[in-house]
Design goal:
The complex is a heterodimer.
Chain A lengths: L2 E5 L3 H9 L3 E8 L2 E6 L25 E10 L2 E6 L7 E6 L1 H14 L6 H9 E6 L24 E6 L2 E6 L2 H9 L5 E2 L11 H19 L16 H5 L3 H6 L7 H5 L6 E7 L4 E7 L19 H19 L11 H5 L6 H8 L6
Parallel strand pairs in A: 2-6, 6-7, 7-8
Antiparallel strand pairs in A: 1-9, 1-10, 2-3, 4-5, 4-12, 8-9, 11-12
Chain B lengths: L23 E12 L2 E8 L13 E6 L3 E6 L10 E6 L3 H7 L6 E8 L14 E6 L3 H13 L7 E7 L8 H6 L7 E7 L9 E2 L2 H8 L6 E5 L2 H13 L7 E4 L15 E2 L2 E2 L6 E3 H5 L6
Helix pairs in contact in B: 4-5
Classes of the chains: A alpha+beta, B alpha/beta.
């Protein structure tokens, strides 16, 4: 393991050096809320912020993007393609849950037939993950086997004792840290063997202390028992509890917009006056027109729409992607749902083991 | 005519595979009015090359930019390589706009999508019973013409087709001049209510099916309104058919066509990708959300 480091007080220099060559996205404060946005001089990174409002997925799967542009004139039609992303960029500060959220999207968008718009962004983006600061009581990433101390990605980082420690995990990550050679320092340069010096010690200790907090979280014991590829689809689908669980749902779709793994989209078009732009935009299975056709909808009530969202995350997705769940336990939906309904309540009600 | 004949403009990145969501350019060469609310559109590429290969039961996305995009079953048989036909009922904003088109209109097309009927495997050598209602004939049309083009590879063919009125029978001319004269083929037509000038059968498809009392020694292929499919399936079971002998094709709202936009699923299956053709015993394993 080759550990690099930079003092938190030097982070501006670090971001500036990256920004000379490429865009760098990180959690940026706007009107008291944090979301991923490009870094500019003057923007400060706040390592104590646990969650951005929306997940980091918008960097690879933007809320809205043009797919194709048309021009019509009389009977003729011209189709102009929208070129995919071709500039390198960096995403900094992604916590373990959101990193795993990328993997959930990857299985959908990178499986055949590949979504070339998403793929281009994935290929041009280098992800620097950071071990999250103090997790909150709504966190349950470990339920889905996520290692919060080792979030993965191209470069994995931890902030310990005022220092950002980084290790490259992929070729892309190595290349990034190499480019930053003049800015980041080698950890444990004072003749100590790799992995044994003071820096390595601090790095390891940071993880140990974090793990202790994780183990004490109120949702630490929540399991996926009763869900996943092994569960019986029709039994789960037909459980009478769906009615009660869904009764308070307003169908506002907030849960889907803040979710790192929700990937459903709509394709719509807009006439600019000069051309017709066909664009992709996030959509929500919680909305009544999501499945509405000229002759009606197969999910006419909120019960069916509510059930769809959770069956997708806990049963349908695992069925299609080798048992992997489409939830990373970030807890955003627990914090944002206006009627306090969420996946944890669904899992506790329908799951194999109670965790009251 | 547009100068953009490849469906790929100057913005195309050389060597990059076009995204599945980006359509290719095509032209509507012929428009046939079948019924008061159904027209059949013949679509060709601009350069005369085949648009793409498809098999009976597969679908394609058609777009008239400014009016939207939707999935339609391909009505023509793959044996007609130089064009695709789509029989489309006027029932919404896009189909309204499609019906208002004139020949020569350029449109966008992408496909083919979905799993076809197993015409070259399970259907081969079998007796076939087609049961269609209204515009539900569209996807079966492709199968029937495919069977006719390879007539000796299949057994006897029965076609039962019904609609609200005689005027609503799609492509009645071809049915009367070609299908009724096809070898080893029987065609049965019915309309919901009696009307002047109609001396054929009157009654709903499921009850006519029971009257005809087909032996359960054939493979049944059904398509029509959901309520018709339900009662036809019931009738077939009463007549001794096993669900494994019965195929149908389903329709749900679709946007991407490739199992990613997330709206056409029934349980873990996506109609656009895992369907639209399903064997009826497979449908039993899915939740009833369709």
């Amino acid at each position: 393991m080759s550990l690099k480091k930079i003092a938190l007080t030097e982070l501006d220099r670090f971001f500036s050096a990256i920004a000379l060559k490429k865009k760098i996205y990180l959690p940026v404060e706007k009107a008291g809320q944090y979301d991923y946005a490009p870094w500019e001089p003057g923007i400060t990174y706040h390592p104590e912020v646990l969650h951005t409002v929306k997940s980091a997925k918008s960097v690879f799967f933007p809320q809205s993007e043009d797919l194709v542009r048309y021009k019509r004139s009389g009977l003729s039609l011209a189709i102009a393609e929208v070129p995919p992303e071709d500039e390198e960029f960096v995403v900094f500060g992604v916590h373990a849950c959101d990193v795993k959220g990328f993997e959930v999207l990857d299985r959908v968008f990178l499986s055949d037939p590949v979504d070339t718009f998403y793929k281009a962004r994935r290929e041009h983006g280098t992800v620097v993950s950071v071990m999250c600061p103090q997790p909150e009581e709504t966190c349950f990433c470990e339920t889905f086997g996520i290692d919060a101390e080792n979030p993965g990605a191209d470069v994995q980082a931890r902030i310990c004792e005022g220092t950002l420690y980084m290790e490259a995990l992929t070729g892309k990550g190595e290349a990034l840290l190499e480019e930053l050679g003049g800015i980041v320092a080698e950890a444990d340069q004072n003749g100590e063997a790799a992995g044994e010096g003071k820096d390595a010690e601090a790095y390891a200790k940071g993880a140990e202390e974090h793990k202790k907090i994780m183990d004490k979280l109120p949702l630490a014991g929540l399991t996926t028992e009763g869900f996943g590829a092994e569960a019986d689809l029709l039994t789960l689908f037909n459980r009478p509890e769906w009615k009660e669980l869904s009764s308070s749902c307003l169908g506002c779709g907030t849960c889907t917009y803040v979710c790192p793994t929700c990937q459903c989209y709509d394709i719509r078009e807009y006439n600019t006056g000069k051309d017709i732009r066909r664009f992709r935009v996030w959509d929500s299975c919680m909305y009544s027109d999501f499945t509405m056709m000229a002759h009606g909808s197969p999910r006419p009530d909120q019960l069916q729409r509510f059930r769809q969202r959770f069956m997708h995350k806990l049963k349908y997705y695992p069925d299609n992607y080798e048992g992997a769940f489409s939830c990373v336990g970030c807890g955003r939906c627990l914090q944002k749902c206006p009627v306090s309904m969420n996946i944890v309540k669904v899992m506790k009600t329908l799951g194999g083991a109670a965790h009251e | 005519m547009s100068d953009n004949t490849s469906g790929c403009s100057g913005n195309c990145v050389p060597g990059m595979k076009k995204d599945m969501l980006v359509p290719q350019l095509a032209v509507v060469t012929d428009i046939r009015t079948d019924t008061p609310d159904v027209k059949t559109f013949r679509v060709k590429s601009l350069d005369g090359q085949p648009l793409f290969d498809h098999m009976p039961g597969q679908c394609a996305m058609l777009t008239l930019p400014g009016s939207g995009e939707a999935m339609f079953s391909i009505t023509s048989s793959p044996t007609h390589k130089d064009y695709k036909e789509f029989s489309i009922k006027r029932c919404g904003m896009l189909t309204e706009a499609l019906h208002a088109m004139e020949p020569g209109q350029e449109i966008g097309i992408r496909g083919p999508y979905g799993k076809p009927f197993p015409v070259d495997t399970e259907f081969r050598g079998k007796k076939l019973l087609f049961i269609a209602g209204g515009i539900g004939l569209a996807p079966l049309h492709s199968v029937i013409d495919y069977v006719r083009a390879n007539r000796d590879a299949y057994g006897h063919m029965d076609i039962l087709y019904g609609s609200r009125s005689a005027a609503d029978l799609v492509d009645l001319e071809q049915i009367q001049t070609e299908w009724m004269n096809e070898k080893d083929t029987d065609v049965y037509l019915t309309i919901d209510r009696p009307q002047e000038g109609w001396d054929g059968h009157v009654g709903f498809v499921p009850s006519y099916l029971k009257e005809l009392a087909f032996k359960p020694d054939c493979t049944a292929i059904i398509c029509g309104p959901p309520i018709m499919i339900k009662f036809v399936l019931q009738a077939l079971i009463e007549m001794g058919f096993d669900k494994k002998q019965v195929y149908t094709t389903l329709e749900l709202k679709m946007k991407c066509g490739i199992g990613k936009c997330g709206r056409c699923n029934i349980g873990s299956k996506f109609v656009c990708k895992d369907g639209p053709v399903f064997r009826c015993d497979e449908i039993d394993e899915l939740p009833g959300e369709y």
